[in-house]
Amino acid sequence: WDETHFGKMGSYYINRTFFFDVHPPLGKMLIGLAGYLSGYDGTFPFQKPGDKYEQHNYVGMRGVRLYRLASSWLFCAFLGSCLVPFAYLTVLELSKSLPAALLTAFILIFDTGCITLSQYILLDPILMFFLMGAVLSMVKCNSCADRPFSASWWFWLSLTGVNLAGAMGVKFVGLFVVLLVGLNTIYDLWDLLGNLSLSLVMFGKHLLARVLCLILLPLALYTAMFAVHFTVLNKSGPGDGFFSSAFQSQLIGNNLHNVSVPE
């Protein structure tokens, strides 16, 4: 059922048709982009679960090899497969135990839920990709604590912020990983504040770096997603009625298009 739901929204992006959904736009935009780049033309109706795709080139949004290896589009399946190395690297960093990391990877490789969720046009593998990416980035950043403000430290801190924006941009449940990273950051800053050998100026730099990478950067990216969303969807569609007359007047094909609407 969900594939019918989100596949249709991918078609909306390809056709630039405005719609309304309870989730933020990033996941559906990425599905639409994968379909567009793999040759899907956005014409399949997605009316009910189980409909045959027939000649429609839907596979780029799911995940199989197309044409040749160089032009493969393994979108949902590719993101789902990334969970295995993400989990492996996270556990290896936390435990420093190769057997523990291998066991984690082995469990995920043969997890029926992950395999099933990753083979359809769903938001779940995209969400899990950003969630686990944020945790891995946070853990790697913590491992660079003895080298603050180094290139690797900035890289992992910034990547954590990017993944936080990605998680929030797919589903609001991504806020839970924001909470996790936030608690880790509070603990880290509290520990630095208690370090008497660290000057207040240096502590201020640590605080500003985290504000920049973990608050301002994710907010900027999250806002940019909606800017792209409203720019791409410029044609009248099923979501018009959720918005004001002034907004509807900007949509091509709407009855109010280019009509002067008083505030």
UniProtKB/TrEMBL annotation:
Pathway: Protein modification; protein glycosylation. It is found in: Endomembrane system. GO terms for cellular component: endomembrane system; membrane. It holds the Pfam family PMT. It is a multi-pass membrane protein. GO terms for biological process: protein O-linked glycosylation. Keywords: Glycosyltransferase, Membrane, Transferase, Transmembrane, Transmembrane helix. Residues 1-234 form the ArnT-like N-terminal domain. The keyword Glycosyltransferase applies. GO terms for molecular function: mannosyltransferase activity. The chain crosses the membrane at residues 70-91, 98-120, 154-187, 207-228. Belongs to the glycosyltransferase 39 family. This is Protein O-mannosyl-transferase 2. It comes from Cochlearius cochlearius. The gene is Pomt2.
